[in-house]
């Protein structure tokens, strides 16, 4: 398990990168748009705590390096409306 200090640092980096990547200005059919994105990332001690928090998405952070993905939702998740779950590498927040 990764130390909370590392997880908090990764959460800050993920937040900054997501907000930057998913924001900007563009023009389509002569109409100018400005898009801003704000995300809230919380760190929990276990998947159970995270899924019980009411979060829309739950990602397990690993130190295995360079990969990420979303797990298929189970039948239980479909019925209960549980969060999407996935996995992201601690170093994935560095530049992507």
Separation of the first and last Cα atoms: 23 Å
Compute the average pLDDT: 81
Element pattern in H and E: HEEHEEHE
Strands, total number = 5
SSE-based structural type: alpha+beta
Envelope shape: elongated
Strands ordered across the widest β-sheet: 3-5-4
DSSP helical segment count: 3
> How many structurally independent domains?
1
Q: Mind describing the biggest β-sheet?
A: 3 strands, mixed
Strand content: 25-35%
Whole-number radius of gyration?
Answer: 16 Å
- Low-confidence segments, given as residue ranges, are none
Share of helical residues: 25-40%
Would you kindly provide a written description of the structure presented here, covering whatever features stand out?
With 96 residues, this protein is α+β, with helices and mostly antiparallel strands. The protein has one domain. Helix content is 31%, strand content 26%. The chain is built from 3 helices and 5 strands. A 3-stranded mixed β-sheet has the order 3-5-4. A hairpin with a 2-residue loop joins strand 1 and strand 2. The radius of gyration is 16 Å and the shape is elongated. The mean pLDDT is 81.
